[in-house]
Design a protein that fits this description.
Blueprint lengths: L29 E2 L11 H9 L13 H11 L6 E4 L1 H13 L5 E5 L5 H8 L3 E5 L8 H6 L5 E7 L11 H10 L5 E5 L15 H6 L3 E6 L12 E5 L1 H10 L7 H12 L1 H24 L3 E2 L6 E5 L8 H10 L2 E2 L1 E2 L8 E5 L3 H14 L4
Parallel strand pairs: 1-11, 3-4, 3-5, 5-6, 6-7
Antiparallel strand pairs: 2-8, 7-8, 9-10, 10-13, 12-13
Helix pairs in contact: 1-9, 2-9, 3-4, 10-12
Amino acid sequence: MTDAPIPQPGILELTPYKAFAKPKRPGRLIRLMANEGALGPSPKAIEAYKAAAGEIHRYPESGSGTLVSAIAKHHGLKADQLVIGNGSDELIELLCHCFAGPGDEVVYTQYGFVMYPTCARASGATPISAPDDGITASVDAILARVTPKTKIVFLANPNNPTGTYLARSEVERLWTALPRHVVLVLDAAYAEYVERNDYSSGADLAERAPNVIMLRTFSKMYGLAGLRLGWGYGAPAVVDVLNRVHGVFNVNAAAQAAGVAALEDVPFQDRSKTHNRIWVPRVQEKLKALGLEPQQTVANFMLVKVPAKLGKTPDEILAFCAERGIFMREMKTYGMTGYFRFSIGTEEENQALVDTLAECLGHG
């Protein structure tokens, strides 16, 4: 007997995710911890969001049909293989609940998104970590951990928090070797930023494979993180299951309207990509000049190694910057010591970050 409700096994082993809390301090805040789009939302998305205000007493469109059609048109996809989520996090959670449970295993990469093991354990399944090759996912390591109990394999490509990616050929090799009852989830949240000839978001594989789903989000380049809007494209059998279990009105009306408008604003998308293309190498070079070791990235964020010779720990650097209103991401949550991560911001924000890091490291 107990005097309190008892949760399912494994739930109390989870550590609550600590999101950003706005500090109670005056002055400017520069938020570079969440990989949000540097340029904010599209002006057209803002207009659509405001226009939706007069209809918020109405339930949103069930199934997000208008948004589904817009995504299909914009990306050249089949509408009946799309599913919309309250952020891609909802789809990750639903995939675990629908395809994995007690006695099953869910494989994810060593430095993969923290929600993969969290959602696996919450569904009663056992999360299995596959070691990375340095800070890049390893197909061989993933396959070595696939057993008859494996029901899902999660691969973030590009990966957060490392900024690394696997080439199309490696993803194909992974899928080819997986049993067809295993769902391969390709989380391509940062696909819009990638400019590599050998990269694929996974849409082509998801369209033809019977056990693959690609996840995408409006939280990054489209600048709609606050509205929680994501989508998946995959095998009809997988998408059908998700469409059966998600909430009838899981995506709010304002998010749907803003999403449609954001897709239509191609010039804004081009500006966002150009901004990232310009500022990633610029910031990398400035950090190298300070003695830091920024890692190569194909996304809109940067993982930075702090050499011991600099005499500062990542915690000390993060604290120094936070005191001056600049907030970045610690990496101990991912088991990465000696690193920190930050998003590419506006020109002003990037310069403020570099100047503050210089001051912290004695270059001021």
